[in-house]
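Practice problem: predict the structure.
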Amino acid sequence: MQSMDRRAFLKTMAAGAATLPFGLSPAIQPPPGTNPGGLALNARDFGAVGDGATDDTFAIQSAVNAAFAAGGGSVYVPAGVYLVSASIEMLSHTALFGDGMGATTLKVRDEVGVDIIGVIRTQIGRSDQALTNVRVSDLTLDGNRANQSSGLQFGFFAGVKSDVRPPDEDVVCWRVETHSFQGYGFDPHELTDRLFLIECVSHNNVRDGFAVDGIINGVVRGCIAFNNIRHGFNVITSSRNVILDQNIAYENNSNGFTIQNGSFDIHITGCMAYKNIGDGMYCIGVNDNVISNNMIAENLENGIRLRGCARTTIVGNRIRDNSQSEHNRFSEIFVDDDGAIPTVDCAIMSNHITSNKEIRARYGIRETPGDGNVLQVGNAYLANRVNGAATSDFAMNDVTAIRAMNA
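Answer:
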């Protein structure tokens, strides 16, 4: 597999080409009802310059405020580099769009010296009414972290804590790039209901590329995360009913995909996770999730790891040549406990698991026996095709029975 060329990717996205990288569908669209419509404004009519030298924060915010005051509308930010020194706050029924990733850029100015929890974010202070119908598209957010010595900056942020006010609703990022932030690239937060991240890309951020945090009913589709210092995609804080499909995570410094902190009803399907420093996909302390029909390859640790999970289904995945940090150490699939919490009642079925390279995984599928009251029980291993592991294709209590149920 070759690393994706960022310039080529952005050009493809901006042009709306018929064939996207790795076979992503060009027909992906945000859901109906998330285009604010109404008034159409140009940020330059409000004083924005986009010359890479002028602070355009106030001008862009003024245009968004005017769209909101008119009952809703869209703000166009023409191609250029727009310096910002604070968050651009999106209000209900407003949209912000540019001329494409790499063409229109909102960039944190040098030595901004303050926290910016979202170069673009939903409104911080508002009434008890839900903030709804926000759309951001066709632009780049640049954290400029090489030129920051203080403060913490994020790319995109949405949502509020449940004990403060109602959740944000119907929030869309479509063809948005975030990079070079001290914090997260995308951090839709607790709580956001009906979140859509479509064909976005996030890279070279100090934290996660995409943190799906406290999301109710979300879709993350056709997105790419690479070279982030933590995870590519991180689903956390009891997110639920979220689909991640056709996404790619590669060369991140931790896991490609992580599900944790009580998140449930998460479906990761049709994705790719390769050459990440940690595991391809990692689940800890979560229940009732599905990992299906993904390609997971050449990660430095495990292909898929379950720790302290219940009722998780791993089906139809192609998993190969993981454990690339050390021959005969990690497993293609590793099932174990999380301290006092065992992994139970999971189904690992119809996966194609191979180790062909000189550096090979220790086991194809490994289930640790646990200790004392912490026992992995009730997990089913059926119709998996496993071959090539350095020590053994299967490592669990009843290997003979497991071999009989798998090809």
